[in-house]
Amino acid sequence: MQTPIANVPHFIAAGFHALSDPIRINVLELLRQRELCVCDLCEALGVSQSKLSFHLKTLKEAGLVNSRQQGRWIYYRLNLPQFGVLEEYLADYRHLGQTLPARPCDNIS
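Above: the chain's sequence. Below: its structure in token form.
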């Protein structure tokens, strides 16, 4: 299912917001290796479960991680297609030529 074009700016902004915090970056780095449960993430990061839950919620809302429950544990993993969306967005800027100068403004106050 493709994301409606009206939601694209929201997903781009949410993705970059999620990438703007060092704890969330560290979570993503840990998840590069393998799927991890909350307890393993807390231990590796040295943060409380309540603090980590806030950051995991932000990452999930941005679509950067997915979760699954197994018994009483919740496991998190990267959602790689969403990273591709952010990568494509940035790649479009790489192909831009020189920005044209502004036209003279005709509004005289």
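The mean pLDDT is 89.
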